[in-house]
Amino acid sequence: MASRSLGLHVARKQDAARSGAVERRNLLTVCRFSVKTLLDRSCLDTIDDSSPEFTNFVSILEQILSHRLKGQTMWFGYETHRSFWDYVKAACSKVSPSCIHSIESMENVRSSRAKGRAWIRLVLMEKRLSEYISAALRDFKTTRRWYEDGAIMLGEEAGLLADTLIGLNTIDFSFCLKGEGLNGSCPAVIDYTPYLKSFQRENSIGSDEEELRTLGSSGSENTTPEKMAASTAEAILTEQSSWVCRCKRLEQKYRMALEQKCYLEEMVRLREAQLSQVIPQNKALQQRLTDTHLSHTLEKEQLEYIVLELQDQLKNFKSLEQLSQTSLEPSHTLNLDTRPASSHWHHHGKEDTPSLIGLCGSLQSVASNKSLASLKSSECLASPTTEMTSPDLTPS
Q1: Distance (Å, whole) CA 61 – CA 233
Q2: What pLDDT digit, counting tens, does each position of 221-273 carry?
Q3: Is the Cβ–Cβ distance between 132 and 95 less than 8 Å?
Q4: What are the E-state strand segments in 121-269?
Q5: Are 190 and 60 in contact (CB under 8 A)?
Q6: Helices (H) and strands (E) in the chain — how many of each?
Q7: What is the DSSP string of 91-109?
């Protein structure tokens, strides 16, 4: 019993792995066909939200990005559903410049699914969807943390997905990010009917050819001229029809390649015209930069010279101020007033009488009052010796 249960468990695991591989392969195949239909549609009309090819492509891309995405485990063990937008925010945070912050700040887009759909439309208009997917795949640790085993984003097919999405960079998309199609209420449903029709058409052509070959081989047993002529005519007709179908397919591919070539040539001419306009502007800006740098250096030198001159003037002003303070001290003037009088009287060798002492005191007070008056009026001081020696102080 144990071996039987073990064998059943192994068989279930193998069936699950096989079904997962088939699911991954089918999603990537349908995504490749969807990109091809978008390229075909862009040759005839602009791609917007109303085109069914774009709606189908967005549904396929959402299914791929949400394939085996891990849920968020709450504190009580309950696992909630996550959107691929949470993974894109974590894995594409290092992309520069990034549109994630602008999508987070949108007022009309609130749910995670709506933000993811707005991100798909915005990066398609910026022609950077493949760049974002490649950046997310390079961050393998984050991808491993967000997806379970067997997911498309963890397999080797994810690199093929990024290469497939490069073809969308040649399409000019036009979307409105304020529409009702961004809300997360409507689920992403894939329409397989256009791809099944193409498969059926190709398979029917192949089956018709096989039937005609078998009929030709069975008719060769009963070899009659009429049957031989009929079989040859049928073979010729089938060969002609097959060649016509091949020619139509080649013509369609040629037209698509020609239109893409014309579009790329037009883009190259536009970029060359823009480059020819930018080159002289760049030269003018460089010349302005050099002129500004030169004027800046000249102004800096002039300011340094002015600062040096002001420092020299400040030093001279301080020295003159010290000299004026020392020359205008009142004690110094008083000493000058008293010294010549005493020396004069001692020079004559006469005694100091009380009347003479009073006269000298009055003369000294008059001289000191004159010196103070001259200091207040900021005029030049007169030498007190001339005032004291001018009168005849010889006692009678």
Answers
A1: 48
A2: 445 556 656 666 677 777 777 788 888 888 888 888 888 888 788 888 888 88
A3: yes
A4: none
A5: yes
A6: 13, 2
A7: HSTT-SS-SHHHHHT-SS-
Q: How far is CA 279 from CA 19, 283, 327, in A?
A: 58, 6, 72
State which amino acid sits at residue 173.
F
Q: Which of 76, 83, 74, 92 is nearest to 111 (CA)?
A: 83
Tokens representing 130? 């493949």
CB 38 within 8 A of CB 54: yes
CB–CB of 168/124 below 8 Å?
Answer: yes
Q: CA 162, 164, 170, 174 torsion: positive or negative?
A: negative
Residue type at 17 in one-letter notation: A
Residue 248 or 208, more confident? 248
HSE-up (13 A, CA, CB side) for residue 231: 18
Q: How far apart are CA 359 and CA 365, in angstroms?
A: 10
pLDDT digits (tens, 9 = 90+) for 103-145: 888 888 888 888 999 999 999 999 999 999 999 999 999 999 9
Q: Dihedral of the CA atoms 86, 92, 98, 103 (nearest 10)?
A: -10
DSSP 54: H
pLDDT band at 49 (very low <50, low <70, confident <90, very high): confident
CA distances from 105 to 83, 96, 100, 133, 171 (A): 18, 18, 9, 22, 27
Nearest CA-CA partner of 191 in 358, 41, 329, 54? 54
- Cis peptide before 97, with omega less than 30 degrees from 0? yes
Amino acid present at 43 = C
Question: Which tokens belong to 112?
Answer: 């995670």
Other beta carbons within 10 angstroms of residue 134's beta carbon come to 19
Q: 61 and 97 in contact (C-beta within 8 Å)?
A: no
Tokens representing residue 182 in the block: 């961004």
- Of 362, 355, 314, 315, nearest to 337 by C-alpha is 362
CB neighbours of 149 closer than 8 A, spacing ≥ 6?
Answer: 68
Q: Is the separation of the CB atoms in 157 and 129 below 8 Å?
A: no
Tokens of 365: 């007070």
Cα dihedral sign, 198-200-206-208: negative
Q: In angstroms, rounded to a whole number, what is the distance separating the alpha carbons of residues 247 and 254?
A: 10
